[in-house]
Amino acid sequence: MQENLTPDQGQKMQLVSLGDITEHKRVEEALQKRENCLRKQSKTLVQLAKSKTLQQGDLSAALREITEAAAQTVEADRVSVWLYNSDHSKVECVDLYDTITKRHSCGMSLLKANFPAYFQALEEQRSIAAHDACNDDRTQELSEPYLSAFGIASLLNAPIWLGGRLVGVVCHEHIGRIRQWTLEEENFAGSIADFVTLAIEASERKAAQEALQQSEAEFRAIFERSSVGIGLVDMKARIVDVNPALCQILGYSREDLSGKRFTDYIFKQEGDLELYKQLISGTCDRLEMERRFLHKDGKFVWALLSISLISSQNGEPQYFLAMIEDITKRKQTELELCESKEAAEAGSRAKSEFLATMSHELRTPLNAIMGLSQLLQQEMVGSLNDKQKEYVNCIYSSGEHLLALINDILDLSKVEAGKEELFLSKLLVQELCDYVISTVRDRAEEKKLQLIAEIDEQADFCIGDERRVKQMLLNLLTNAIKFTPAGKVCLEVKKVPQGITFTVSDTGIGIDPGQFKFLFEPFQQLDSRLNRQYEGTGLGLALTRKLAHLHGGDVTVESVLGKGSKFQLFLPNQPPVEGDARRFCEEIFYLDEEQSTQQQITVKKRSLNINEVSNNTNYSLFYEKSWQSRGDKDDSSSTCSRRTQLTSRQPATSVTKNILLVQDEEKTAALLRDYLQAIGYHVEQISTSNDFWERVQNQQPDLVLLDLELAGETNGWDLLSKVRQNPDLQDLLVVTIASNTMVANSDYPVHTTPDGLRDRALQIGANACLCKPIGIVQIESILMQYFG
User: Fold this and answer.
1) For the domain bounded by 225-332, which CATH number is listed?
2) Domain 421-577, CATH class in plain words
3) What is the pTM of this model?
4) Which of 438, 661, 410, 648 is nearest to 522 (CA)?
5) Same fold yes or no, 40-207 and 225-332
6) pLDDT attached to residue 630
7) Where would I find the beta strands (DSSP E) of 626-751?
8) For residue 97, what are the β-bridge partners?
9) What is the C-alpha separation between 289 and 302, in angstroms, rounded?
10) What pLDDT is attached to residue 620?
11) Sites of the modification 4-aspartylphosphate (predicted)?
């Protein structure tokens, strides 16, 4: 500053003042530099905001652009972006820009567990401005593994946040001397982190859009190429879109169906509207139903219709998605199968009826043949010479063989038809073995074979149908004896964890292993030459295996040709039963063993005096029922005494007993009448129920033999029921006669098994029941039971 001054003498002088403005200039320069930095930062941020790269969703390209712009703006040596991995255990460098080399790199990582202070600071602070990074408490953990390795002196880090989560960090690094980061630079670093967030969002949005487009393309491909008809229907039932498959199913083009009511093509059923309401209300997720559709040419098309809802963004139902699968061929097949099933059932019924009829027709003459043969064997109508006895014995044995064949065929047919019913009980193994061994002992002795039974001490009980288990064991033992010329036959019983095994082994002719596959086929004998040497139908093993399967078990075989065979019958601890039968079976399993044994013994003693004889003669079993007026007879008489009694021609008692025979089969009536009269009984025979009441009143019979298959208006079942309804006839002895294959009337339905016939007859009021063909031993046992 200068001034013009006039001194007192009038002489002019110039005054100049000097001041130090260095600090002022420094402030001006700092302000200018700050303004330039802010202007530069603002320009960079504007450029990034307008960048199409960030908007396109290419994250790698966006990060390269961001790191380069940030490095140039703040004049940092290196700028990098680090993102957390999926489990948030470390950060990985996804892009690093080096201003010295002008290159981008990636791949480094830092474990969060190794740098707890640094990562805690990232989560808690808006930015980390570490001027002296190696000595800053927040970053000094990075000194040795990272900072010193790259000569980094200062760090400016800004965390990256996305949706409220810390997802990474942007690092600005200065190499060499320590750098003081400004507040403007810290703010700029935060803005750069925000742009990284935008880039990540754009990338995720692009990925979502691409996934959506891919999904839409896949859906459209499925929609167009699916073999199942697909229709999009609005909430007013108008068709919005259909695929080619649905057009083909209905016979219309897409244009024809568009805008039409979908329900116009469906044959609706009562209750459909309620189902749609449930779907719309959310009660169910999807509807599935079989409905008929109307084809363009007027024919019906059966389809499996599946309907679900498509909701709008606000959750309101917007469309129905209908999936229609053409099942017309399946329906036609079902109809054909139904018709085939009906035909098969009709055939099965016809087969059963034929077998029942044939059985009846065969058993009727067999009854006469075997019964009359027995009369001749007993020489009740005169003596026979040796040749005559030989012929009679041949006739009787042939009848027995034919009867066994009929029984096997009927049993096999019943099992194959699934009509065989098992009556399960807890059986004493020792008694089973004693029975079957005693039954086949005579045959073994005839061939001089050693017959052995070995029973495991733990094998005390088994579960099964007593009659069928005996039948299976007898089949196996009989076969073993038949095909064993010399040596021994052994029955071995063992307890195994899952059940019990009965093993029948022999030293017979053996079986070629190549023939095992035919062994259990019906009507098969493996070597045709054996047909002449060993009689048999080939049904025994087939029936045995099927009965074993019915018990839930099996029959297996081991054999060496020329050395012998071993057949093993396995019965499980718990046969495969259901419902009431399962509960009954469980009751058997948990039955007290002592109680069970006592019950078994009681039952066997009660029927021993009858069953012992009938079992030994291979006749159908018969059963007796003791009424209150009579107790059980003592089983003190021996088999020998019974046989002596059979040959006696004297009346059974000192007073002749009257027997009323109600039988309409002439041959059976003649057999029974002649035999009973021959041993001293007075017999009256009627063939219908018409004279029954008059004969009962006049004759007052001591015993009535009543055929349940009696022809006429009143059959045997009705007659038996009426007898027991009459108070005056409660003590009348009535023994019924029935066929194994008879069918009861509708008033008294029974199972057509011997057990079913017996149970029903005893329930109605019979004292005992005989099954055809009737043997002399059976009749004599009945007479001994009641008349002594």
Assistant:
1) 3.30.450.20
2) alpha beta
3) 0.42
4) 410
5) yes
6) 32
7) 658-662, 682-686, 703-707, 733-738
8) 79, 104
9) 11
10) 36
11) 707
